[in-house]
Amino acid sequence: MALLEVHDIHTYYGSIHALRGITMNVEQGEIVTLLGGNGAGKSSTLNTICGIVRAQHGTILLDGVDITHLPPHEIVKMGVTQAPEGRRVFARMTVHENLDLGAYSRAGDRSGIERSFELVYETFPRLKERRNQLSGTLSGGEQQMLAIGRALMANPRVLLLDEPSLGLAPILVHEIFEVIRRLNQAGTTILLVEQNAHVALHICTRGYVLQTGEIVLAGTGKELLANEMVRAAYLGEN
Fold first, then answer.
1. C-alpha–C-alpha distance, residues 119 and 121, integer Å
2. Is pLDDT of 167 > 90?
3. Which is more confidently placed, 189 or 175?
4. pTM for this structure?
5. Are residues 172 and 129 in the same domain?
6. What is the pLDDT of residue 237?
7. Tell me, what CATH number does 8's domain have?
């Protein structure tokens, strides 16, 4: 049994059929990446897993427990958190206050929260240096670190990352992906949506390719890197 199982999920935005029978799984300890063009359904998949968007059909299981119809805050308590596309930090709050909000589901576990602060500040020393700085004044890379750190504060079993390299300089992309690799090596299971297919496929265990709300291809990172369709569509190769 996989840690996260998604079975035949259909999601709508009004009359728009965004996800058309998505079935996938994420095993404990894996990095699984979702590839696809704009509008393929990658973010919709993450948001449906998180309960932000409600699935109209299908089931989502976390370690065998059905979370399909739980509200988002309950899904966070169960162990699924997301660092969303665009970072979405609270600009008028400090770095430390943003991180503290990430632990809202753990009220009463102050000692555990303090350990998570230590982990996040150890993972992102720059955030520790700026802990009292307003988040809106951080650079794009620092805001991305904060978005990931805030998600880690909930002590997730599965961490969902939506376009963590978006808008970042190449040197910062490398830094963010090194952090993702270290988090995974330390035991965090990760479901990754990433526009930089080359980097994502090198770091992932397995991947899925989405087109117009459907999975059209699946395989290991190495298999997808070698696939002619993937190379032409997402790696810029003929």
1. 6
2. no
3. 189
4. 0.93
5. no
6. 66
7. 3.40.50.300
